[in-house]
Amino acid sequence: MLYNFELQMAGVILLGAMLACGVFLYIRRRRDRLLQEAVESRLLRGDGDVDDSATAAAAAAGARNDDTEPEDRGGADNPGDGKL
After folding, report:
1. Taking 60 as the threshold, does the pLDDT of residue 73 lie above it?
2. Rounded (5°) CA angle 71-64-61
3. Does residue 40 lie within any of the structural domains?
4. Is residue 34 a part of any domain in this protein?
5. Helices H / strands E in the chain, number of each
6. Is position 7 within any domain?
7. Model confidence over 15-51: pLDDT tens digits?
8. What is the number of structural domains in the chain?
9. Is residue 73 part of a domain?
10. What's the rounded Cα separation, in Å, for the pair 53 and 56?
11. Residues spanned by the domain of 54
């Protein structure tokens, strides 16, 4: 059975973890937004080649999505199709 002190310590630990996650997510979202604005401003100004801007936009999209799929997952159903 948990008593007051244990419940308070669990609350302090959970509060600290939630604050740390919140700060981390805020910084990550801010970085992604700044990167996206930089890419959009570069596209509007027309700096560089079109290919460079497209790769920068793809890099910005990839920075937000860290879950990269392997080329070939294989499996019993459809080996080598690259889909789930």
Report:
1. no
2. 70
3. yes
4. yes
5. 2, 0
6. no
7. 999 999 999 999 999 999 999 999 988 888 877 555 5
8. 1
9. no
10. 5
11. 25-63
